[in-house]
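Archive maintenance. Older records in this collection stored only the sequence; we are now back-filling the structure field for every entry so that each record is complete. The fields below show one back-filled record exactly as it appears after the update. Entries are processed alphabetically, and DMT family transporter is next in the queue.

ARCHIVE ENTRY
Title: DMT family transporter
Organism field: Paenibacillus profundus
Length field: 304
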Amino acid sequence: MSSRKTSHLYALLVIGMIAISFSAIFVKWSEAPAPVIGMYRLLLTNLVLLPWVWSYRAEWRSIQRRDWLRMTMSGFFLGLHFLLWMESLRHTTVASSTALLTLEPILVMAGSFWLFKQRTTSRAVFGIVISLFGVILIGWGDLKISGQALYGDLLSVLGAIAVVIHMLLGQDLRQRVSSYVYNFTVFLVAGACLAVYNISAGYAMTGYGAKEWVLFSLMAIVPTVLGHMLFNWLLKYMNATSISMGVLGEPVGASILAWILLGEAMTPLQMLACLLLIFGVWVFLVNDRKAPQSVSTTADVGTA
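Back-filled structure field:
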């Protein structure tokens, strides 16, 4: 891959990183239940993508049953991720919740090695260590071993595990399925799963004010289309670990935005930690190896 194309891919990764940083802010601003926010975020994204469905009709028909099953599983775990993580923001701070999500690259790297035999360099691993140290410093003042905050922290960890499964399934599927078809299917399944949950839990599906609908729409456009959808597209050209490392930048962006827009405290130590985290991500991306374009072990993914 040419250095120019690689630079463009990293630029898109940064755009996605900035976009997902707004997610926690929109959730904090909204007064709607977390599962309702997640549902409308996904279904409104599908509404944006709907005009192009017909042009992909040939690909829809050619997808094998095995891949339909895997896309359904990927969508389920994405919906579960949104449910757990958005709910965590009701119980803990933005810095703490997003910091715990950074377990993702470690779990993705382990899963990629196990499923796809993907290796990385020792320098790239060093970059992960630097970044995680920065993340620990960001969330240090917010991680409280007490009832409500601990519950929120646990939800964030479980949300990280769910999104790792979603990412690993996506890395396999994106070798055979176009970005549009993958995104539309996964978002639709995730939104439908959240709709079923909302109905069973008795949450109101309508009756929300104009402010809430604006926030639902912003969640669809900014962190979903410009964030998650962009990451799913990048899975064709970058490995899941690299993209997950880019997600490490979310605590930086989210913490800064929470400080500016929500008035959540940000100490000088956390500011220094943000710079350390960014440096660690840069070290990883410079030294990581590109994932192979073909995956020889795809038959083993998602069949357990």
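Update note: The chain has one domain: 9-294. Confidence is low (pLDDT under 50) at residues 290-304.
Entry marked complete.
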